[in-house]
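Sharing a chain and its predicted structure for anyone who wants a worked example. Both blocks are below, sequence first, tokens second.
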Amino acid sequence: MAIKKILAFTSAIVLVLAMASCGSKETANTETDAAEITEVLEDTTASIDEELTSEPVSEEETTAEAETTEKETETEAETKPETTEPAGPDLKSTDGILNFYKEACKKSDNNFNATQSMTLASLDGGSGAVGKAIDLFEPIAKNALADNSGNFDHVPGKYENLTVDDIQSATATDDGTTTTITINLKEQTNGPKSDSYSGSVGRGIGVIDGVDTAINELKGVTVDYSEGNISLRYSEPKIVVKVDDATGKIKSGTWSFKVNVAIDNVKAKVVLVPVTLNGAKAVIDYSVKY
């Protein structure tokens, strides 16, 4: 509608200019031409006024135009592809930290070269031990532990079987290049018969595969626990690893715990010296460092 009004007004101006260009004609025609021009202008102006009066822009048309523009804007917004940043690992929940740790272990397991260390932290023969037997036993135990220390070629435990229920607490911090994971496992107590990868500590780090395996490492020592009791409590089990943010692989780590050995009514011979152990205790420090 606005275009029609503009065209009408433009036509009137063109007509005026066309008539004005006839200035070389006789003077007698000047008054006639002026009258004609005035008449055309008046007619054109009246036509424009009539259109303005008879064809006002309605609210419906204005609203329709606005809605059309709005829909076009919405369509453009819908057609634009959404770009979202890839979600990073969940390092706030125990489950998220555990999954991050498992993935790092999986990426690192094929090229793992660590050192296993076992040391005798303390030894108490209890009430049934004789001093000579303990004096003989201590260096044997230390040598056996040293013989079982050395290279370690896989990520400790059965990390793929580790669960949230095995974990006492877990934290993670990221400095921009390295994520440090700290996992405190729940303590575990085993009897003389056990499996290396059972229990919270077994799955997270690995434990002694039954006391018979350990006893066989003690040269010159025989033990009869058929009528007695031996318990192994794994305390302070902890995993601390540093993971490279770029590769997702473990850069360094320590897996550690203490083995608290308690012995009651167990008969033994240490280099042919017989002894009955009651209330005997020992603490062994265990760690794997990568």
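Comments welcome. The first helix runs from residue 2 to 20.
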